[in-house]
């Protein structure tokens, strides 16, 4: 595909984006039935992921993304991809990067999210049949020249051991943080609900913790997110809510509770499902220092505060709407692939 011109790449990927925004019957069936394979992948969540992918593949965005790179024709390298499966289509961007860089993707899909990504790539291969030679789904990773693997802090140790001898990107656990000043509008706090609840909070771009000024009043936040209460009807989410609530009550842990979200003061970054951690700060300089100190474990920061940090900062409601150039962990995947 590196031998395809950038303008042609833009053309075929924009057409894929159009088809994702206007799903055919097969895609509609996949969207409707994914929850049979993974209870977290409700029709609403899968539809959201498909729409987000479609919206990112516009002619303008694709040109802005690809024009920042120089692709030279080369002998394609085989790039092993170990995809996560925590939210629908979560590995699509890595596959896209391998394809546009002119390399071959050896895809080890997660059992949690194998059907959707296969069909999206079939759609792309229908638009441009040459794409079919550029990827294959595999059960066992072998014969690779480079690896991009996404997992937990635990699995990353194994990945380092197995793939350390080839060029690699190995991703670990990350979480996203919101920095609040206390001056947010009701609308901003309502949008923060999307950052917390989209995909049930299972993504690394979901907000798992908020930094708040001393003596912050959570009542306006709870009022602003009240319309998200149907999330509590999802049985797996509700089980997590009940379980964590029971633990906090038995341990007499101080916490706030609105019936579908528990809010607890905690120094950790990663909150359990149905829980939002918070930590207080003295002033914005202290908050900025905290974010810099934890930057290696943060995916993005949701805030409109005037802070200067290394992490990607996004507006309220935007954490799960990454652009094509918003790379996971701040590592430029396309640059890495172009340099192989």
TrEMBL record:
GO aspect biological process, one term: bioluminescence
InterPro entries hit by this protein: Ald_DH/histidinol_DH (IPR016161), CoA_reduct_LuxC (IPR008670)
MF terms (GO), sorted A to Z: acyl-CoA dehydrogenase activity
Pfam assignment, any one: LuxC
Keywords associated with the record: NADP
Record's protein name: Acyl-CoA reductase
Native organism: Mucilaginibacter galii
């Amino acid at each position: 595909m590196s031998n395809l011109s950038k303008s042609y790449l833009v053309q075929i990927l924009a057409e894929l984006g159009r088809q994702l925004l206007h799903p055919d019957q097969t895609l509609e069936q996949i969207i409707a039935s994914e929850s049979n394979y993974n209870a977290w992948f409700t029709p609403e969540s899968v539809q959201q992921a498909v729409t987000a992918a479609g919206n990112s593949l516009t002619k303008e965005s694709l040109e802005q993304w690809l024009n920042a790179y120089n692709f030279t024709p080369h002998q394609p390298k085989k790039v092993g991809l170990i995809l996560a499966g925590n939210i629908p289509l979560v590995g699509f961007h890595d596959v896209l990067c391998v394809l546009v860089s002119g390399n071959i993707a050896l895809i080890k899909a997660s059992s949690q999210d194998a059907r959707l990504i296969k069909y999206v790539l079939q759609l792309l291969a229908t638009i441009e049949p040459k794409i079919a030679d550029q990827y294959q789904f595999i059960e066992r990773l072998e014969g690779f020249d480079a690896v991009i693997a996404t997992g937990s802090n635990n699995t990353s140790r194994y990945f380092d051991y197995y793939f350390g001898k080839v060029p690699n990107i190995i991703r670990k656990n990350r979480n996203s943080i919101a920095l609040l000043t206390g001056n947010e509008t009701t609308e901003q706090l309502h949008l923060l609900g999307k950052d917390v609840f989209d995909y049930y909070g299972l993504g690394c771009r979901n907000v798992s913790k908020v930094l708040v000024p001393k003596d912050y009043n959570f009542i306006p936040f709870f009022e602003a997110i009240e319309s998200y209460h149907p999330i509590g009807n999802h049985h797996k989410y509700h089980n997590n809510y009940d379980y964590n609530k029971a633990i906090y009550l038995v341990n007499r842990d101080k916490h706030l509770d609105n019936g579908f979200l528990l809010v607890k003061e905690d120094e950790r970054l990663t909150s359990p499902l149905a829980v939002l951690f918070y930590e207080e700060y003295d002033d914005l300089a202290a908050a900025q220092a905290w974010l810099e100190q934890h930057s290696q474990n943060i995916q993005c920061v949701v805030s409109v505060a005037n802070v200067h940090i290394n992490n990607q900062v996004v507006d309220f409601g935007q954490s799960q709407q990454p652009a094509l150039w918003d790379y996971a962990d701040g590592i430029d995947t396309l640059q890495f692939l172009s340099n192989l």
